[in-house]
Amino acid sequence: MCGIVGYVGTKNCVPILLSGLKRLEYRGYDSAGVAVINIDKSKIDIVKTKGRLTVLEEKLNQNPIEGFVGIGHTRWATHGEPSDENSHPHVSQNGKIAIVHNGIIENYLKLKEFLIKKGYTFASDTDTEVVAHLIEYYYDGDILDAFIKTLEKIQGSYALGVLCLDRPDMILAARKDSPLIVGLGQDENFIASDIPAILEYTRDTYILEENEIAIVTRDKVEIVNTEKEPVKKEVFHVTWDVSSAEKGGYEHFMIKEIMEQPKAIRDTLTGRLPDSGFEVNLDGIKITKEDLQKLNKIFIVACGTAYHAGIVGKHVIEKLTRIPVEVDIASEFRYRDPIVDDNTLTIVISQSGETIDTLVAMREAKARGSRTLGIVNVVGSSIAREVDDCLYTWAGPEIAVASTKAYTTQLICLYLIALDFATKLGTISYEEFANIRDEIKRLPEKVEYVLTHKENIQKYASEHFNAKDIFYLGRGLDFAVAMEGSLKLKEISYIHSEAYAAGELKHGTIALIEDGTFVIALATQEKLFEKMVSNIKEVKSRGAVVLSVAQEGNTEIENVSDHVLYIPRTLDILAPVLTVVPLQLFAYYTAVQRGCDVDKPRNLAKSVTVE
Question: Where is the SIS domain (predicted)?
């Protein structure tokens, strides 16, 4: 998962490439580089380095380069360790072709052996360098032909940007299973992995489809297929502002995005849940009562945080519709020969809409006859385009690697889907529907209330940030949220933590509790409250220090806990939206106390577009 940007125009491209890479650094940050056709068009200047983008900037300040056509890259390593040599861009043996790549070339070893036999030498350990040499191998004066022949040979996923010294006015770009867009300007055009990279310069874009090739010059953009036939594209006009992709005065993107959750929830609900009536508006999704009646199972498939949202979704959909729901990790689903047919609905969840395991799992389900429904945040993303039905979360750009507002808006979409299905099937009364509907609409203000008490959570984080192990306990929906809370802490603070179903304590896990062990106990489910109180007593009796989260009014929990955080009262089924917020804040403030790079945790990247 890497960031790509490219520019063709009348200005010095280097500052523009660096500006774009800064907005794409969340996609990868172990190395960065640029390739620029110099002003006299005599060579391609390449500057690249291991490390953050600031290291590249320092190099360019010491040895400036200039040109009107260039490509840039920020890398998250998949093949070859982070190093100067493995950094992108990569160049062909004759120096005439430079490329940047996001994805994985699965057959690169076979291609590398072929090229070595043809006399090519390799300067890196990457799969990407194969592409640069292969284009040179096929090049006989027509760079587009050579590019197409190369695309026919490589297997795997890619978004590619290509410079050729013999065509110093042009960038070629293509994609397969990795996102790539083209930005349309005046006397200048762009390529990028993601919209924020170019939003400072243009709001008009083409979103490339699978196996489309963009021929980008300063005056025009042509889109063709691999037969060189023209492809007609509609312009996608971006409506959100560049400032929404910047920190807005907050210290980190993560805390900014946590604080944006009330708005994100309101936006995701807008127009979808009328104040009256017995219906839900799912943006034109036409899943009928008859479609639902023939279902024998619903799969929810996702990765990471989205998978945890799916576990909540299972509880909610089963409770309201009585349709069996199975939740699966996408990387497991796609390889285990799942029992899926035309009586199955597969719901896939992905913030970026580009998560490779989720994308391939969706395709697998679709190939077996399943109807597919996507919950994604990025308009025009691969999953959004390929599913049969798509429901967008209107969370806005999420830059921090640790997902927060995407998770809460995914929950909202799952509630909407469950309510829509239940009304169509008649498994919910109007009174119950209206009760849930009205309470969902109150969630934004209740999240705001939790956020106004963030200093209390910051205090607890300051007291426990040196913990070696932290355990999260919960039952039912609280266990689902405990899994997400534990993940948040692990990924940004690097503290070992685990989430356990509290009823499993006696079956082995209580052996981990000793004097001083820090435990976060979730007790927001009214029907399970007394059971959770008993579980808290169990860990307290073995020396644990307990921070509990409960709904307001359940003050009995203070008798068995060292600290208590209260969330506003709500329906049990909706409590996850509120419960997760203090857990997000706790993870954030703990990571800050430990001096961690909150927005860019080690070994992680925002959008997992490779296996």
Answer: 288-427, 460-601
Residue 427 phi/psi, 5° resolution? -95, 10
First to last CA, the chain: 10
Examine residue 442 and state whether it is found in any structural domain, yes or no: no
Active site residue 2: yes
Name the catalytic one among 96, 256, 405, 606. 606
Q: For position 389, what pLDDT does the model report?
A: 96
Domain extent for 507: 450-603
Distance CA 95, CA 136 (A): 9
Angle, in degrees to the nearest 10, between helices 53-62 and 13-24: 170
Query: Predicted confidence band at 507 (pLDDT cuts at 50, 70, 90)?
Result: confident
606 is catalytic: yes
Residue 81 class from Cβ within 10 Å (0-12 exposed, 13-18 middle, 19+ buried)? exposed
433 vs 243 pLDDT, higher one: 433
Peptide linkage before 64 cis (omega within 30 of 0): no
380: alpha, beta or left? (left if phi > 0; alpha if psi -120 to 50): left
Residue 536 lies in a domain: yes
Which pLDDT belongs to residue 26?
Answer: 66
H, E, C per residue of 81-99: CCCCCCCCCEECCCCCEEE
**Pair (171, 38) in one structural domain:** yes
Q: Is residue 459 part of a domain?
A: yes
Among the candidates 195, 220, 239, a domain finishes at 239
3-state secondary structure 403-440: CCHHHHHHHHHHHHHHHHHHHHHCCCCHHHHHHHHHHH
CA of 362: how far to CAs of 71, 89, 226, 370, 397, in Å? 32, 32, 25, 9, 23
Within-domain flag for 346:
yes
Same domain, 233 and 266: no
**CATH number (domain holding residue 413):** 3.40.50.10490
Q: Kindly state whether residues 498 and 365 are assigned to the same domain.
A: no
> Would you call 505 helix, strand, or coil by DSSP?
helix
Which one, of 305, 364, 354, lies nearest residue 332 by Cα?
364
Pairing relationship of beta strands 297-302 and 213-216 according to DSSP bridges: unpaired
Give the DSSP H/E element, type plus range, for residue 506: none
Question: Last residue of some domain: 189, 221, 239?
Answer: 239
pTM: 0.79
Q: What is the mean pLDDT of residues 36-59?
A: 94
423 and 454 share one domain: no
pLDDT at res. 196: 86
Predicted confidence (pLDDT) per residue in 299-352, tens digit? 999 999 999 999 999 999 999 999 999 999 999 998 888 999 999 999 999 998
pLDDT confidence band for 545 (50 / 70 / 90): very high
From 2, 303, 390, 596, the catalytic residue: 2
Q: Which amino acid is at 118?
A: K
Burial class (CB in 10 A: 0-12, 13-18, 19+), 57: middle
CATH number, domain with residue 202: 3.60.20.10
Tell me how far CA of residue 95 lies from CA of 43, 277, 315, in angstroms.
Answer: 8, 66, 57
